[in-house]
Write a structure and sequence with these properties.
Blueprint lengths: L1 E7 L3 H8 L5 H4 L3 E8 L8 E8 L2 E13 L3 E7 L5 E11 L2 E12 H5 L3 H30 L18
Antiparallel strand pairs: 1-7, 2-3, 3-4, 4-5, 5-6, 6-7
């Protein structure tokens, strides 16, 4: 079983907003090139997203299904990876002061991944999680920073914006 955590410097609700967007899955999950919701209302129970993994010229399309959802706090997924089988991925969000402690726990369920599961396999998953959590943190923290950035005010009068105009 591979467990990893990371402190993300935004609120748990800001992290949940990213997790709850099935179109953004490919932005933070390592190995995916695109994703799209295909069933149900992501991330509610039994909803699914389709995603694609590219390995050179080979493109594998797979699916992830929500098995359990506690909105804003916990998301449990079953990722289908073709011949590799399936894996359970649990993501827990804990308030940590004004930030969010994200804990990811993954282990294979069925197929080749389950049969070949060992300490070395867990080490690879740990590396994948480190990158995945770094991507998730970057998405959440940048999104939060962008929301705080002031929006420039544009004048309705042509040539009136900027210094030096009377």
């Amino acid at each position: 079983m591979a467990r990893r955590h990371r402190l993300i410097r935004v609120s748990p609700s800001a992290v949940w907003d990213v997790l709850a967007d099935g179109h953004r899955y490919a932005e933070w999950v390592v190995g995916t090139s695109w994703s799209e919701p295909v069933r149900g209302k992501w991330p509610h129970q039994d909803a699914a997203i389709r995603f694609q993994v590219r390995l050179g010229p080979v493109r594998l399309t797979n699916e992830t299904v929500v098995r359990h959802c506690e909105e804003g706090a916990r998301l449990e997924l079953e990722a289908h990876a073709g011949v590799l089988g399936t894996a359970r991925i649990a993501i827990e969000l804990l308030p940590w002061g004004e930030h969010c402690l994200v804990i990811v726990d993954e282990h294979p369920l069925q197929g080749a991944g389950g049969r070949l599961h060992n300490v070395g396999f867990d080490a690879l998953i740990q590396l994948r999680h480190r990158t995945m959590l770094a991507r998730l943190a970057r998405l959440c923290e940048n999104r939060d920073r962008d929301a705080l950035r002031p929006v420039p005010i544009r004048s309705a009068v042509p040539g009136a914006e900027g210094a030096g105009h009377a």
